[in-house]
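Recap quiz, item 2
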Amino acid sequence: MKKLFAVLGDPIAHSMSPAMHNDLFAHYRLEAEYLPFQVQKENLKDAVKGLKALGAAGFNVTVPHKSAILPFLDEIDELALSIGAVNTVVNRSGKLVGYNTDGLGFIKGLETFLPQLANKKALVIGAGGAARAIYFSLAQLDCLTIDLANRTVQKAEELIRDCPFTNASRAFSLDEAAAKLGDYDLLIQTTSIGMHPNSTEQPLRLDRLGNKAVVCDIIYNPLYTQFLQQAKQRGATVQNGLEMFVYQGALAFEKWTGIFPDIQRMKTNVLQQLRRTLNVNR
Ligand code: ATR
């Protein structure tokens, strides 16, 4: 019998996960199907119960359910619990176990550009859900300095305080951070600023950026945000959000199947989907 996989979100129509995972199932000749389900907040509990009752082998959870799902799972991995958000669920003999592969997916993608993270100085821009997953996952590595910059400095301070891993992070406003950019080896843009259709916006000025910096943006529509384009013009190495998206999916796929999938294949699939459905600006 075919194994069932799914993604729960609202909205969900534009999710690229179903085609990406179904392509992998076909490629690895696995009898499985991955379906998108639009689930409203008030129906999340029933949807999770339903997937469990149907014997779904696993599923992803996306906006706005990543935190709300925690009480409906049987077990939660330690990192996901500290982040307070789950994006991947595995059905282990009838028990639903929640994980967060967003932050680790980001790190895996980053390591292809910057294999040595030790002793680097990083600045995370933003203090929302995505920043939390990335910041906690990086802090867990315990080998680099990470500061946070956010419009609301208090939220960045709270995030640093919430983190269970040792850190000596400082919180800055966006303007304060812009003035210190030369101090950082690595910039990670985690807000939605610059995302289509607001693609002319950017979170902070880059005139102090060093030309040896690595600059990441978790946005992938447009593929190269204004922020990344400017960073590139200043000589920085840039990485777009395609990496994080693909690697979070690869880590989920590995948890479900035991196979770490072909990343290049996944990227090609997602790029094809982006070209077909979104206004991609290369
Ligand atoms: P997500 O879960 O996708 O990370 P979120 O939790 O809504 O989204 O967080 C959005 C992040 O983008 C926050 O850091 C937010 O800053 P505030 O904490 O000050 O709200 C930031 N953000 C969103 N719109 C912004 C804007 N126009 N200018 C500056 N920061 C913005």
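Residues 104-240 form a domain with the Rossmann fold fold (CATH 3.40.50.720).
Residues 242-257 form the longest helix (16 residues).
End of item.
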